[in-house]
Specification:
The structure is a single chain. This protein is α+β, with helices and mostly antiparallel strands. It folds into 2 domains: 80 residues; 79 residues, OB fold (Dihydrolipoamide Acetyltransferase, E2P). The chain is built from 7 helices and 5 strands; from the N terminus they run ααααααβββββα. Helix 1 runs antiparallel to helix 2, helix 1 packs parallel to helix 3 and helix 2 packs antiparallel against helix 3. The longest helix has 25 residues. The C terminus is likely disordered.
Length: 169
């Protein structure tokens, strides 16, 4: 009986070790052999003892492996080995996407016919833009209503005062 208990404890330790030590599955194989041998000795004691050891192995092994895999990313080795992705879009935004953010709320002039995509000029810089869906003629003042990623959405300015003309020069 003592040998069966020792072998079961060794099997559980090998499962824990498998999570933290890259062994190519060798520790898993040794763990399975240890469980099998433990079950053999437990069943030689009695059928009830063998069934109890089998239940512990069937329920305990996956549970221990699951808990260790959940714990691994929180360890120092896990943080060094695993890649943790960015939390939001801003962390992975490219420099061109960040540059486009400056155009939010600005006024400019449609340089080409926007159907719905085309080019507009803001503060002397040409920018690829997209209209809200309608066609906008070249030379029409436009207002940036949204910048999302590398997409600049513009809307035609309805007032004909020409206020968009001054920022486009």
């Amino acid at each position: 009986m003592t040998v069966a208990v020792i072998l079961m404890v060794v099997a559980f330790c090998l499962v824990v070790l498998e999570v933290f030590v890259p062994s190519g599955g060798l520790l898993t194989i040794l763990s399975i052999v240890s469980v099998g041998t433990s079950l053999y000795f437990a069943f030689t004691q009695s059928t009830l003892t063998g069934a109890l050891f089998m239940a512990v192995a069937i329920i305990g092994m996956p549970l221990v492996a699951y808990k260790m895999l959940k714990l691994f990313p929180k360890t120092g080795a896990g943080r060094r080995i695993l890649l943790f992705g960015p939390k939001g879009h801003e962390e992975v935004a490219t420099s061109s996407e960040l540059k486009l953010k400056q155009y939010a709320g600005k006024r400019g002039i449609a340089k080409s016919k926007l159907r719905p995509s085309g080019v507009a000029v803001f503060d002397g810089e040409r920018v690829n833009v997209v209209s809200e869906g309608m066609i906008i003629e070249a030379g029409t003042p436009v207002d940036v209503i949204e910048v999302s990623g590398n997409r600049v959405v513009v809307r035609k300015i309805e007032d004909s005062s020409g206020r968009g003309q001054e920022s486009a020069s």
